[in-house]
UniProtKB/TrEMBL annotation:
Biological process annotations from GO: L-methylmalonyl-CoA metabolic process
UniProt KW tRNA-binding keyword: no
Lineage: Bacteria, Pseudomonadati, Bacteroidota, Cytophagia, Cytophagales
Name of protein: Methylmalonyl-CoA epimerase
Lineage top rank: taxon: Bacteria
Family designation: Belongs to the methylmalonyl-CoA epimerase family.
EC number: 5.1.99.1
Molecular-function GO term, any one: metal ion binding
Top enzyme class: isomerase
Residue stretches making up the VOC domain: 3-131
SUPFAM superfamilies associated with the record: Glyoxalase/Bleomycin resistance protein/Dihydroxybiphenyl dioxygenase
Organism: Pontibacter oryzae
InterPro entries recorded: Glyas_Bleomycin-R_OHBP_Dase, MeMalonyl-CoA_epimerase, MMCE/EMCE_epimerase, VOC_core
Record's keyword terms, sorted: Isomerase, Metal-binding
């Protein structure tokens, strides 16, 4: 793994959360995206080398909406950038981690993504990301 790529935060109200984080961080999001396949809106803030992703579920059955219903707003996941997502997925499977998807899928911010089940990582949802070239 190369580095922490971003920290994902689940929010109920996208507009309010974007305004709050713009004020808190002193910068506007550099990107907002609608990811229809995941029924989510996302925005990304960058401070130095750190990125924060805000995620708003758009339907009651989206993963983000279910997360908020169960746990409330807050940190949803930590994403790590990898050189080769396929090789990293195979390595983690060999090490006994449970992956939530068998193949990487297109995520926000021009990335291929795969998630590691929180039960495999002491309760933390881990996202692997690789830049789509």
């Amino acid at each position: 793994m190369k580095n922490v790529e971003h920290i994902g935060i689940a929010v109920k109200n996208f507009s309010e959360a974007n305004a709050l984080y713009t004020t808190l961080l002193g910068v506007e999001p550099y990107k907002t995206e609608h990811i229809a396949s995941e029924a989510v809106n996302t925005s990304f803030f960058k401070i130095g080398g750190t990125k924060i992703e805000l995620l708003e579920g758009l339907t009651p059955d989206s993963a983000i909406s279910k997360y908020i219903e169960k746990r409330g707003e807050g940190i949803h996941h930590i994403a790590f950038e990898v050189e080769d997502i396929y090789a990293e997925m195979e390595r983690l499977k060999r090490e006994g981690f449970t992956l939530l998807n068998e193949q990487p899928k297109k995520g926000a911010d021009n990335k291929l993504v795969c998630f590691v089940h929180p039960k495999s990582a002491h309760g933390v949802l881990i996202e692997l990301t690789q830049e789509i070239k």
